[in-house]
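R.M. (postdoc): so does anyone remember the format we settled on? I'll just put the structure tokens first.
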């Protein structure tokens, strides 16, 4: 694969940025990658493990002269970081982000984007429950979706180059508008995370089930909730505060369906339960058919692997 940008700057050096760096290196997609993280500790780790060709001590230093600057910080921090780097952005450069919510990020960042700089928001639909500079790996985006959310007046050439860049990092790319993105993600990611957090919280509160039993017998379904509920608290706090409307809309529907299932159980309406579960099983089938998960028993996970 050939170089797409001369210089890429990654602001924030956690799971997503470090995975981007290794994916960029895997295919030689940039001449130089600079990076910046807020804490000295993360910058030291990055230098130790060779994460980025050059780790800078300020976001502005990292962004200066870059052809592509990607904001890889929690959604709630995007505006502050954009304000900090705006004065040094090179004319003709592209500024993008990887935030899990789009409308709020666009509203927070767009006012700072200088004339002559192209803003092309993006969101790779790939992640793990791990965070920090050591958690990334080059394959994270392979065969996953990356949604580009061009804003009004986004330059078509810079959108096309960013698309090429994400494709070269292994992703399938699609374009979507911000409102639709936030609703889709509320269904597929944000509400499920909140439900997982709730379920794990309930088990924690339910002292009749001892801790050891919860842990010992977790493979019966609970374990998958615990994996999701182990996700980064800062990131997810920001996601819910930023995608408030769509998440509340989906949770409202969820609650109605939950009440209907609850009533079916109480009244012994087996047909309702059976029909419902048949419908949901078909959704699982279509996810596997789309190549977005494995059919292997145990979700393809090694039973001895503690993830
Ligand atoms: P992460 O591993 O927790 O890393 C976050 C990075 O941002 C760290 O380098 C951190 O610096 C820096 N940071 C945190 N707060 C900051 C602030 N107020 N100002 C400046 N820098 C700050 O996070 P991640 O999982 O890579 O997520 C990054 C972005 O990607 C988020 O917007 C998230 O919504 C999005 N995203 C995440 C996933 C996922 O599954 N994790 C998937 C798709 C998109 P320090 O280390 O110095 O604290």
């Amino acid at each position: 694969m050939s170089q797409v940008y001369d210089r890429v700057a990654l602001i924030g050096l956690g799971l997503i940025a470090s995975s981007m760096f290794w994916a960029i290196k895997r295919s030689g997609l940039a001449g130089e990658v600079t990076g910046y993280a807020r804490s000295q500790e993360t910058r030291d780790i990055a230098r130790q493990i060779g994460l980025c060709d050059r780790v800078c001590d300020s976001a502005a230093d990292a962004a200066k002269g870059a052809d592509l600057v990607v904001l890889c910080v929690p959604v709630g921090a995007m505006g502050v970081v954009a304000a900090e780097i705006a004065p040094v952005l090179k004319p003709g450069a592209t500024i993008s982000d990887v935030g899990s919510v789009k409308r709020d990020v666009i509203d927070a960042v767009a006012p700072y984007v200088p004339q002559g700089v192209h803003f092309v928001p993006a969101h790779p639909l790939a992640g793990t429950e791990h965070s920090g500079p050591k958690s990334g790996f080059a394959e994270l985006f392979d065969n996953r979706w990356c949604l580009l959310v061009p804003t009004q007046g986004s330059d078509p050439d810079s959108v096309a180059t960013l698309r090429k860049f994400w494709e070269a990092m292994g992703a399938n790319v699609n374009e979507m508008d911000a409102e639709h993105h936030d609703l889709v993600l509320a269904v597929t990611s944000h509400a499920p995370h909140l439900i997982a957090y709730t379920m794990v919280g309930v088990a924690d509160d339910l002292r009749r089930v001892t801790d050891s039993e919860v842990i010992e017998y977790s493979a019966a379904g609970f374990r998958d909730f615990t994996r999701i509920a182990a996700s980064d608290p800062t990131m997810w706090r920001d996601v819910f505060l930023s995608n408030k409307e769509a998440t509340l809309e989906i949770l409202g529907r969820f609650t109605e369906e939950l009440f209907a299932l609850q009533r079916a159980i109480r009244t012994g309406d087996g047909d309702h339960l059976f029909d419902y579960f048949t419908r949901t099983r078909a959704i699982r089938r279509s996810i596997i058919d789309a190549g977005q998960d494995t059919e292997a028993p145990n979700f393809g996970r090694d039973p001895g692997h503690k993830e």
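R.M.: ...and that's the designed sequence above, right after the tokens. Also worth knowing: The first helix runs from residue 15 to 27. The chain has two domains: 5-176, 180-268.
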